[in-house]
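Researcher: Good morning. I'm working through a list of sequences from a screen, and I'd like to move beyond sequence-only analysis. For each chain I'm collecting a predicted structure so we can compare shapes side by side. This is the next one on the list. No need for commentary yet; just the structure.
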Amino acid sequence: MASATTALSNLPQDVRILRLEALVEASETLNSASGLDEILHSILDLITAQLDCERATAFLRDERTGKLHARQMAGETQIEIVLEKGVGLAGYVAETGESLLINDVRADPRFDPSTDLRTGFVTKTMLCVPLRKLGCPVMGTLQAINARREGFSADDLAYLESFAAVAAVAVEREQLAQAALRAHLLSTELELARKIQQRLLPSSGSINLPQPFSAWGMSQACYDVGGDTYDVVMLPSGECAFWVADVSGKGIGAALLMTTLQTEMRALVRAERDLGRLAVELNKKVTEVAPLGTYATLFLGVLSSEFELLRYINAGHLPPIWMHKRLVEERRFEASGMPIGMLPGTEYEAGVARFVAGERLALFSDGVTDAENTAGRTFDFAGLEASLGGIEVRRACDIGQAFFADLDRFRIGAAAKDDTTFLVVGLD
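Model: Good morning. Structure tokens for this chain:
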């Protein structure tokens, strides 16, 4: 209230006392009002009664467009009034923050007569003040129109300025309440989205597979939902298909594309044996829905226990790392093509590598190598290779748990900056 009474400090004492009493009444009325429309309606009723004028209007600035919107009016039928930035007296006050007292409105070149022409009303005198708290940005304007006596006075303007400061607190209070409600609703929606996304992924930990296959996986979203995905599925041929994909970006946008990618992968991997054609078809489907500049890296493997052979596609993904290697030959997972969704019409060439019993293959997203500790140092490939090289256990479930124990020791206390996914696949 102290900041709201600043404009009244220069008024004669008897006038100031009356105005202060009116402000107290206004504050009590506004504190008991609930809902933005009720608050604005109370504001305008108080203006017309305390300033003895024919009409009053409350304009609020729309955050998306910056335009002024007449949310409530008193003394006239509600009509839609939207003002561009700087248009009319209300627009001028909202742009400059300067209060206006005009007792001959039509002589003022800033006056916009379009609303009078629409309604037949004649605006003669006006007070227009910015709606804002002391030292804060303007959130709108308040207008008192057509004093019932000869005209408005400087005392009236001082009171309306003080009143606007009180009204701004009430308006902001309700806007913050609405923002809190929207945030709660968004949080609820995000929780639902998180649960839906979790159902698209295997349960964290060991994945139930027939012998001799084994697998363990985990994916941790940086935010409520994430853009990483992985899966391990058995094919009608008796082969085991597995993949890890990492959608560019994080949060809701990445999660939506991840959902598309996971759904399409589950269908395509069962329908198309040729991995090159599979990747082409997946790329086509993703580019149809993905915004420009959004893509996903992908490593897809199909493992045959009968032939101890791995067929794979590496679409711009970080190459997997062998564990417990039984072969001395070099087996690198060269890129088969561009990331999925990056470029329409991309061709992909499948690779082939031996994968013998007893070996394990570790797949991961860049949230693993880019993980930071509290000192700002990244885990990097050196940390990943050192961790995997030091793990002596051979079961996929033990490897996964041991690796995440290492990773968590490194990054403990540091906030995650990316989604983190790790999958280990073995042939027993």
